[in-house]
Structure formats: C-alpha cells, structure tokens
Design brief:
Blueprint: H1 18-21, H2 26-47, H3 52-64, H4 73-79, H5 83-94, H6 97-100, H7 109-118
Helix pairs in contact: 2-3, 2-7
Length: 119
C-alpha cells in the first residue's frame, strides 16, 4: 500500500496533475487560507466586530505575506491541523501586534479550511 494517494498506482490518476495540480499545492492551500483570513477581517472591520483599521491591515497583509509550508509543518504535525501554525506565522510576519491580534477573530480552523478549499 502506498503512503499517499499521490504515490498510489491505483488512485494517483484521480488527482490533478500538470497545470491543474498547481491549484492543489501546499502553497496554494496556504494562499487560499490567507485570502479567507483577509476577507474575514475586512468584513469584520466594516461591521465593527474588530477595529476597521485592523481589518484593513490584516486584509492588506493577507495579500502581501507568504508563509512557507515547511515553516508550519511542525505545528501541523503537533496539532493535527495547519491553521493554528499558519495564523501564528501570519501574525508574526505582519509585525503589527496591534492589528495582528485580531487575525482569525471568531473563526475556527475548520471555517478557514473549508472556505479556502472552495476557492
């Protein structure tokens, strides 16, 4: 038995490869999750759930910051889900604790993952 469906002769062809495969990379998944975090913060800011300035800063940062999948691998292995490590890395990269504290406000890891998968 293969360790991954991507290594499996039986199942590998069920999953995208080539140009489409780039949509399913770890980097693409992280980018989608950051877009969700940014959109969430922007709306929360406009609605007064978090400070509007923080929502705008988080949204802008979500478009500019990249997080290396390898940098959150240990956290993902420990927690069984990638979002806590991603949020921690994103907050650190923002270098604006007065705004980054509001990133992921009121969201669950599952909210972020499910929404990102739809992107």
């Amino acid at each position: 038995m293969a360790a991954s469906v991507f290594d499996s002769p039986l199942y590998a062809k069920l999953f995208p490869s080539g140009d489409t495969g780039r949509l399913f990379t770890d980097s693409a998944a992280i980018r989608a999750m950051l877009l969700v975090e940014g959109a969430l913060a922007k709306v929360q800011g406009k609605l007064g759930v978090i400070p509007d300035e923080s929502g705008a800063a988080i949204h802008r940062a979500s478009l500019e910051i990249t997080v290396d999948p390898g940098a959150i691998a240990a956290s993902t292995g420990q927690k069984g889900v990638c979002v806590p490590g991603l949020v921690a890395a994103f907050r650190k990269e923002m270098e604006a604790p007065e705004h980054s504290a509001f990133a992921h406000w009121g969201a669950t890891s599952q909210d972020i993952i499910d929404t990102a998968l739809m992107l």
